[in-house]
Amino acid sequence: MIGGSTPMYVMHSLNLGQGSKPAGRIEWRRILRYFAPYWRQEVFILSCILFTSVLGQLPPLFTKWIIDGAIAGKNLHQLLLDVGGMVGAALLASAIGGWQGYLNAFVGEGIMRDMRDALVTHLHSMPLSFFTSTKTGEIMNRVSNDVDAVDNVVTGTLVTLATNVAIIATTIIAIFLLDWRLALLSMAVVPLMVIPLAPVGRKMYAIRKRTREQRDVIESLLQETLSLSGITLVKSFVRESTEAKRFHEAGTDLMKLEIRLALVGRWFIALIGALVIIGPAIVWLGGGWLAIRSGLGVGTIVAFVAYLGRLYGPASALIGVQVQLVSAFAVFERIFDYLDMAPESPQRPNAIDLGVARGDIVFEDVRFGYSADRLALDGVSFHARPGELVAFVGPSGAGKTTIMQLLPRFYDPQGGRVVMDGYDVRDLTLGSLRRNIGIVTQETYLFHASIAENLRYGGAEATDAELLAACKAANIYDLVASLPEGLGTIVGERGHKLSGGERQRIAIARVLLKNPRVLILDEATSSLDSTSERLIKEALVPLMQDRTSLVVAHRLSTVLRADVINVVDGGRIVECGTHGELLKEKGLYASLFAAQFFVAEELSDGALV
Ligand code: ATP
Q1: Which of 33, 403, 466, 499 has the smallest number of CB atoms closer than 10 Å to its CB?
Q2: If you measure from the C-alpha of residue 227 to the centroid of ligand 1, how many angstroms do you get, rounded to a whole number?
């Protein structure tokens, strides 16, 4: 068993989708924090809403004045004034509405951008274990679709909420001022609208959460099968119809959930529809009685019924808003779940800035497992002195790549220490540690951008002349020069418009531009043709010069030049020495050498040293 704390991989997979807070508790404060930077616009929006809702109270009043005043008193002048007032109020309200629409969009889009920024910045700080245990599609879904859903809440739901609250408040004031008896009567049906809110909201919240999860599944399927590597696999195994079926099934599950979501609380909506008719009927009954008994003006009753439209309409909209809001919190919760996950190997307080390293590397009895029950490294110790080339060879799955991952702290060991220039790497700032390390992996990753942009990932400030010099050193200059667009050539998705060997040499040029003190090189296992092999071999010479190089070696030329060869097997270093010494030992290295290097290099070099 591994000592020490729970491995990060395990902690992250436990944390996924759960978050640290009790499920279902809405973190209002946290949500409001995203609204804070836009308070000026929000105050303006609220003022617009309040002003237009007051303007909205005027037409029923004008109606009353027209019926009870102008028409009853046969006063044409007053009629014109009242109608003019009605039209004017409507025009002013729509002009303010236009301006408010712009502000809504500004706030909604701004909040979305801020949330996306926060998510992406946090994701950059997540450890590799998170990315190996989470589907890319799920991550994409949260950053794009979930954040888009937040926009609907901000620009749609919250504005509807504020608008309707303002309309209801001003309408209630208006009807009580108009006639308090009728006002009380018309409020009688309101509790019927409010009581079912909580259960409907809860149900919606639960289904909304499941629909978002199902969208994760769909996005992951798309990512997996439509990426260049994925689609190549699908085509080569002729699995198009299976994949289409899988996609169809996932889509059907989503469809079912969305239908359930649309149906939640439909009886409740129907009840509200009925109340919208029943309410005015009650007012006509009470108002009619008052008109007959105590001479209440007909204009007042007509105005009252018009006001009721302004009361029930927004009230039912508000109920919809409440339900939408509660289910939208499922989306906020998903975003916060990600933001709450612990970032990678926290930097210690007072971490030391390494500056330019000497490149003295020591592994002291390092033990590490990706999961709690299985060790990948079991007591690895070695010393790489500045400028040395230290090679690691061993059977597949022995732990060679894992050793390389621990130096830049992609993972931290559970036991022992990794030391750079005398410092435990956990005492150094992550930035200063990684700036000193250049990595060339088996799987060369290039961005879908120009060669120049890819190279400048290694040196943002590098001039074109410096880029070309790096290309020369990495043996890729001839290719770049032969391309019509030279350094401006776009390399395609993941660099797939270039051959494997060309991609590797570009990656080598990229690290040359970074000019790190320590080089980690995971040589490609796939055999390249002899020209390509020679070009890479030559490119590696300047790459390893004057640097401490840790190399997972698959090439004879590398092991022959190595100062020390560590033979890794079952997570341990089982043999250590130079090529000559190890051959004499006639152990694992000797047999690996015979099986692996001899055959491969005999073909490409023609002879052995
Ligand atoms: P190869 O020469 O085939 O690349 P290697 O010697 O580099 O092999 P590693 O990649 O270091 O081997 O793997 C060591 C062990 O750790 C293997 O058993 C592997 O299955 C396991 N392993 C590697 N990466 C992970 C990971 N991200 N999560 C869990 N286990 C892993």
Answers
A1: 33
A2: 24
Is there an atom of ligand 1 within 6 Å of 397 CB? yes
Rounded CA-CA distance 87/459 in Å is 65
Strand partners, 248: none
- 364 SS3 class: strand
The per-residue pLDDT for range 87-101, each reduced to its tens digit, is 888 889 888 988 888
Give pLDDT tens digits for 3-37: 333 333 333 333 333 334 444 566 778 888 988 99
Range scoring the smallest mean pLDDT among 74-83, 500-509, 513-522, 526-535: 526-535
Q: Mean pLDDT across the chain, nearest whole number?
A: 82
Q: Which residue among 132, 368, 370 has the greatest number of ligand 1 atoms within 8 angstroms of its CB, and so is best to mutate? A: 370
Q: What is the mean pLDDT of residues 148-160?
A: 77
Contact 375, 369 (CB under 8 A): yes
What would the pLDDT profile of 32-80 be if each residue is shown by its tens digit? Answer: 898 899 999 989 998 998 888 888 888 888 888 888 888 888 888 888 9
Separation between Cα atoms, residue 154 and residue 150, nearest integer Å: 6
81 phi, psi to nearest 5 deg = -60, -45
Together in a domain, 67 and 101: yes
Q: Is the CB of 399 under 6 A from ligand 1?
A: yes
- Same-domain pairing of 283 and 430: no
Of the residues 13, 374, 402, which should be mutated to test ligand 1's pocket, given the most ligand atoms within 8 Å of the CB? Answer: 402
Q: Whose CA is nearest to atom 23 of ligand 1?
A: 402
CA distance 45 to 104: 7
pLDDT at residue number 524: 67
Domain CATH for 403:
3.40.50.300
Does ligand 1 have an atom closer than 6 angstroms to the CB of 377? Answer: no
Question: pTM of the prediction?
Answer: 0.72
**Does the beta carbon of 127 sit less than 6 angstroms from any atom of ligand 1?**
no
C-alpha angle 154-157-160 in degrees, rounded to nearest 5: 115
What domain range is 400 assigned to?
352-436+564-609
Which of 486, 538, 492 minimizes the C-alpha distance to 512? Answer: 538
- Pick the atom of ligand 1 nearest to 404's CA: 11
Give the C-alpha separation, 201 to 325, whole Å. 8
What is the total count of domains within the chain? 2
Q: Report CA 96 to chain centroid distance, whole Å.
A: 36
Any domain includes 157 = yes
* 402 within ligand 1 shell (Cβ under 6 A): yes
Alpha-carbon distance of 524 to 554, in angstroms, equals 7
Q: How confident is the model at residue 238 (pLDDT cuts 50, 70, 90)?
A: confident
Q: How far is the CA of 449 from the centre of ligand 1 (A)?
A: 30
526 close to ligand 1 (CB < 6 Angstrom) = no
Q: What is the pLDDT of residue 257?
A: 92
Ligand 1 lined by 398 (C-beta under 6 Å)? yes
Is 544's pLDDT higher than 80? no
What phi and psi, each to the nearest 5 degrees, are found at residue 415? -145, 155
Within 10 angstroms of residue 154's Cβ, the number of other Cβ atoms is 23
Answer whether residue 326 is part of any domain.
Answer: yes
In a domain? residue 489 = no
457 pLDDT above the threshold of 50 = yes
Q: Please give the distance, rounded to the nearest whole angstrom, from the Cα atom of residue 35 to the centre of ligand 1.
A: 45
| Closest CA relative to residue 566, chosen from 345, 363, 343, 304 | 363
